């Protein structure tokens, strides 16, 4: 019986992006292990320079960026209790969005 598996970074060819996922809210109640920021968050991105901000989900107003751009929510709910909320984008649309996002990254 297999309960989990992992793939080591030593066998991947592409540069890896190190990330972790944590539970920060359960049934609408903030919940996180010590050292983590509890509660749901919004991820905002500037429409001009791509700068991102993470704010509490309940924060009001996205605000403006130092560059003059406007911050907007970039997370979109696609699933709610097994109900699909939106049809997925076509692969060509996804590629276009990714290429636009990568263009403004500082590498
Ligand atoms: Zn900006």
Brief digest:
The chain is of the alpha+beta class and 107 residues long.
Indicate the topology:
Elements: E1 25-26, E2 29-30, E3 41-46, E4 52-56, E5 71-73, E6 79-80, E7 83-84, H1 91-103
Antiparallel strand pairs: 1-2, 3-4, 3-5, 6-7
Bound molecules: zinc ion.
Zinc ion binds at residues 46, 48-49, 51, 65, 67, 69.
What features would you describe in this structure?
It is a single chain. By secondary structure, this protein is of the alpha+beta class. The protein has one domain (about 10-105). Helices cover about 10% and strands about 20% of the residues. It has one helix and seven strands. The strands form three sheets. The protein has a three-stranded antiparallel β-sheet with strand order 4-3-5, with no helix packed on it. It has a two-stranded antiparallel sheet with strand order 1-2. Strand 1 (about 25) and strand 2 (about 30) form a beta hairpin. The longest helix is centred in the C-terminal third of the chain and has 13 residues, at about 90-105. The radius of gyration is 17 Å and the shape is globular. The protein starts with about 25 loop residues before the first strand and ends with a helix. The model has no long low-confidence stretch (mean pLDDT about 85). The chain binds zinc ion (ZN). Zinc ion (ZN) binds near residues 46 and 65.
């Amino acid at each position: 019986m297999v309960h989990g598996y992992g793939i080591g970074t030593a066998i991947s060819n592409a540069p890896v992006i190190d990330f972790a996922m944590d539970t920060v809210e359960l049934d609408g109640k903030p919940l996180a292990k010590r050292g983590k920021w509890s509660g749901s968050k919004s991820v905002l991105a500037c429409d001009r320079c791509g700068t991102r901000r993470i704010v509490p989900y309940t924060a009001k107003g996205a605000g403006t960026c130092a560059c003059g751009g406007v911050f907007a929510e970039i997370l979109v709910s696609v699933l709610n209790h097994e109900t699909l909320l939106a049809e997925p984008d076509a692969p060509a649309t996804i590629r276009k969005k990714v290429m636009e996002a990568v263009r403004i990254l500082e590498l």
